[in-house]
Amino acid sequence: MSVGERDPYTGHMTTGHEWNGIKELNAPVPKAVLFFLAVTFLFSLGYWILMPAWPTGVAYTRGLLGIDQRTTVAESMAAAAQGRAGWAQKVSDGDYAAIQADTVLMRTVRQTGHTLFGDNCAVCHGQQGQGGKGYPAIAKAPWLWGGEPETLAETIRVGINATHPDTRVSQMMAFGRDKVLERPDLLKVAAYVHSLSQKTDASAATLQEGKVVFDANCVACHGDDAKGKRDVGAPDLTDAFWIYGSDLQGIYSTIYDGRQGQMPGWENRLSPLERKILTLYLLDLRKKS
């Protein structure tokens, strides 16, 4: 609102509002603002007319263009399915060796397998399959149940100590907690197992006594040479790969409390094609490692 007083510097009328000697001018709205407001209004009006916009209670206005995002998504998914049908059929029907020898097909397997692995396996085994405490390093460590393609695919399908009726079952006894061995024997066998893969300060007598305990209690699963047995999922104790820690205290804790790792079965979560792609991806991951 103007009060009839004109500012001598700008030529605009004043509103009558004044703060500490500063008078408010009754300046017009910049034309650029009015222009963009008009453009925005016209765009909104055009969008309301052409596109689905206004709810009508149980539905919505369809717009002159009749665009439906659900239809668009369905068409996009159908196109994607058609695009992958060719290579997916080759993976489903082909044997593992033939697929691995096909460089073009393996490029697609790597891309798809990387996504499948990241979505389903990386939370436990790590993005690069490097594993962590309690989870095996599947990119490098020896396979507990065997690494042949069919064997690996079966492990993915049924899991380990899982709810699947055909799951692989593996459990290490709690030799200390269940009073199978007394503490002196636990210490001796822990020292012996520790010495199988690394330097130790234990005396020769302790190691010999520990081997006696090992032979009496552990060879049934880990073998006479302590290199493990795939038919029961028992790990090799002579290599550098340890799931729960290779230090003496970690080995003692494992012997004392036992271990029962668990992996879910993926038969009801992933399709046969997805499980086969995962199998190929894991084999390729190990090849790179």
TrEMBL record:
The keyword Transport applies. Pathway: Energy metabolism; oxidative phosphorylation. One of its GO terms (biological process) is proton transmembrane transport. Its main location: membrane. GO terms for molecular function: electron transfer activity; heme binding; metal ion binding; oxidoreductase activity. Heme c 1 binds at residues 121, 124-125, 263. Keywords: Cell inner membrane, Cell membrane, Electron transport, Heme, Hydrogen ion transport, Ion transport, Iron, Membrane, Metal-binding, Oxidoreductase, Repeat, Respiratory chain, Transmembrane, Transmembrane helix, Transport. Component of the cbb3-type cytochrome c oxidase. This is Cbb3-type cytochrome c oxidase subunit.
